[in-house]
């Protein structure tokens, strides 16, 4: 069991990828605190997990991670009921409004940033003191495709997810002395409610190219949720100790063997956000 005795908070855990991560953590021996806004879905997820993992500690806590008071209560109650905290998985997120920036509703745009970015930061702020006290821990942030490429007509999502990754890189350096590893995960193209939102919005709002990609993804099944969940298990376990400040793709990167490359990773910009200069593309300007 890779996570035997570990205690984890997983946000956005009532469905989709967050639920898959919870299932994977329980299978590896962890106790979990599930967090989501929808109480009915949350209780349904808790009941499903209890049937699949009898005897495991599974608690559910309703919270809006964009609200500081909710997050304080979430972390305090999770720590009290689980008996401590070892892992935080910041999974809760939304696409936000779809369409050109000048046409979308501003409050919806700002709300998406509040959930994706500020909600992630709030959860980390509340969890870090508990992890620091025990001089160890793991923080896993969900990035998605918005972190590494432009996403026309989904600007709130793209901007907030890129910010999450840079926040994770920064936090990793702040916490390195406390043996707290912080990494971001790109789980792949998932067939979840976010994909359904894109399909429902149509090509007029999300763009013809992205819509066509989404239709193809829906037909072909997308990346299995289990693949990204397995990466989260790895990053939550002792196997990944010392791997920190990275954005890892569940699909494309050899993450199972990263401990073999720790010396190469230290002090490098591999698996990080960075600026490319002309010389790196064979160009000499100026």
What does this structure look like?
The chain is of the alpha/beta class and 286 residues long. The protein has two domains: 7-188 and 225-272, Rossmann fold (3-Layer(aba) Sandwich), CATH 3.40.50; 189-222. The protein has helices at residues 16-27, 39-52, 68-82, 106-133, 155-175, 193-201, 203-206, 208-220, 225-236, 262-265, and strands at residues 7-11, 31-36, 58-62, 87-90, 137-142, 180-186, 246-249. α1 (16-27) packs across α9, α3 (68-82) runs parallel beside α4 and α4 runs parallel beside α5 (155-175). The longest helix is centred in the middle third of the chain and has 28 residues, at 106-133. The chain is globular, with a radius of gyration of 19 Å. The chain starts with 6 loop residues before the first strand and ends in a 21-residue tail after the last helix.
List key phrases describing it:
single chain, 286 residues, alpha/beta, Rossmann fold, 2 domains, 7-stranded parallel sheet, 10 helices, globular
The CATH superfamily of the largest domain bears the name NAD(P)-binding Rossmann-like Domain
CATH first level of the largest domain? Alpha Beta
Average of the residue pLDDT scores: 93
What Rg do the Cα atoms give? Answer: 19 Å
Architecture of the largest domain in CATH?
Answer: 3-Layer(aba) Sandwich
Q: Would you tell me which CATH topology of the largest domain applies?
A: Rossmann fold
SS element count, helices? 10
Multimeric state: single chain
- What structural class do the secondary elements suggest? alpha/beta
Strand tally, please?
Answer: 7
């Amino acid at each position: 069991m890779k996570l035997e005795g570990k205690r984890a908070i997983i946000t956005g855990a009532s469905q989709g990828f967050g639920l898959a991560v919870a299932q994977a953590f329980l299978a590896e021996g962890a106790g979990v605190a599930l967090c989501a806004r929808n109480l009915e879905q949350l209780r349904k997820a808790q009941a499903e997990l209890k049937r699949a993992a009898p005897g495991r500690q599974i608690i559910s806590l309703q919270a809006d991670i964009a609200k500081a008071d909710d997050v304080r209560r979430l972390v305090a109650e999770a720590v009290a009921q689980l008996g401590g905290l070892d892992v935080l998985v910041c999974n809760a997120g939304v696409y936000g409004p779809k369409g050109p920036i000048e046409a979308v509703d501003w409050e919806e745009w700002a709300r998406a940033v509040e959930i994706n970015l500020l909600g992630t930061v709030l959860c980390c702020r509340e969890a870090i003191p508990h992890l620091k006290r025990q001089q160890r821990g793991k923080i896993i942030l969900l990035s998605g495709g918005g972190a590494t490429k432009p996403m026309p007509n989904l600007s709130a999502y793209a901007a907030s997810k890129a910010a999450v990754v840079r926040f994770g890189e920064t936090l990793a350096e702040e916490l390195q002395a406390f043996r707290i590893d912080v990494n971001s995960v790109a789980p792949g193209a998932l067939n979840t409610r976010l994909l359904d939102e894109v399909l429902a919005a149509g090509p007029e709002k999300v763009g013809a190219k992205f819509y066509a990609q989404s239709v193809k993804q829906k037909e072909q099944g997308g990346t299995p949720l289990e693949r990204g969940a397995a990466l989260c298990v790895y990053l939550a376990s002792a196997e990944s100790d010392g791997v920190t400040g990275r954005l890892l793709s569940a699909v494309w990167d050899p993450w199972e063997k990263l401990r073999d490359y720790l010396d190469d990773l230290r002090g490098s910009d591999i698996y990080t956000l960075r600026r490319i200069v002309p010389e790196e593309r064979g160009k000499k300007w100026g």
